[in-house]
């Protein structure tokens, strides 16, 4: 995949004030640019800088002193991007960092796109696409298992698994090509039975990866948990109690929560992504309607649903409508009867009649009574209560799972081709399709639009 090695620049450290900030430059002009703006305290000439050697010096814009910095050059190809890379370690002020970046831009670099440094590393063969994704997963990890899975992926465990399957496919394809291109030559090739057995092995290897994909996704993203209920039943109070913070505004005014509020928490090592939704009710408020539409979509995507009921009121039409909706979707549901610290209507039996399969827990979110039971039940509803804080998963992204499912489908078509006694040309088509689908994972056959989307998840400077 072609690209130019024009110099790019980005700030690699988070915005704000700190001890140091790092400005990163890569590309064919990077060493020329640093030679033009950096003066070493001890190295008087502007000859080329030593590779991987830190220099103390000053940054100048013409004759104007900007900052005293540490500077290092990492020369191609032994650098992160595979190109010449320069890092400027300056004082961590917002203004001074911006001034140095603007100076580098003035000297001929352009602003890096999000993830462009890692994208260049991928294009230069320094890492494959799974390892590039692992970098962003390490940066954004919110659980111990998610971090462990990401570091293993960066170390190449997914790449190795995919390459092993890929090697089997390439072995069969090479034999098929030999049979097709040289039918009359006395070339020793695999038998159809041996090819069929190798396809079987590849399918088994893929099945092992697919089986753990859902657990892997949860370890990276968290269990997608949605809090639903009509207005003013205590959904926001429950969210605040679970996260141990006043994250959501709590008032007696119906419709206070108009947009989805998202928080991550860990319970016994399992990561939960908790979504507090707008209260379900008929409303003419345009903003509130938009929030309700978002809530409806979240319900369909949820792993778990926390349905909150106010035990100080009789069940209303809004409650019954929502229960009918919950019965129509195949989701794990935990009913939370809230406000048991106040005068109650004891709605548990009626709710059980409406949702006989749902677990019901009575709490007071305000007094934090029963929260331990809620947390225990959330854990029990995930992986049958298996705690996964020390587990490492190979497949953690839906993109990987989808590619594996597609690959398996083509391999199964290949087995049908063999069973039906069709020619080698037909089997070759099936296996080439499988090879293409599998290559989407590591980036060997990745579509440019998909690749751009993956790297857009990164911050500028990474």
Short description:
With 462 residues, the chain is an alpha/beta fold. The protein has helices spanning 30-37, 94-106, 116-123, 129-140, 144-154, 157-181, 192-211, 213-221, 235-243, 286-301, 317-327, 348-354, 371-381, 398-419, 424-442, 448-455, and strands at residues 8-11, 18-26, 38-40, 55-61, 64-74, 85-92, 110-111, 223-228, 261-267, 270-276, 304-310, 332-338, 359-362.
Write the layout of secondary structure elements.
Elements: E1 8-11, E2 18-26, H1 30-37, E3 38-40, E4 55-61, E5 64-74, E6 85-92, H2 94-106, E7 110-111, H3 116-123, H4 129-140, H5 144-154, H6 157-181, H7 192-211, H8 213-221, E8 223-228, H9 235-243, E9 261-267, E10 270-276, H10 286-301, E11 304-310, H11 317-327, E12 332-338, H12 348-354, E13 359-362, H13 371-381, H14 398-419, H15 424-442, H16 448-455
Parallel strand pairs: 1-7, 8-10, 8-11, 11-12, 12-13
Antiparallel strand pairs: 1-2, 2-6, 3-4, 4-5, 5-6, 9-10
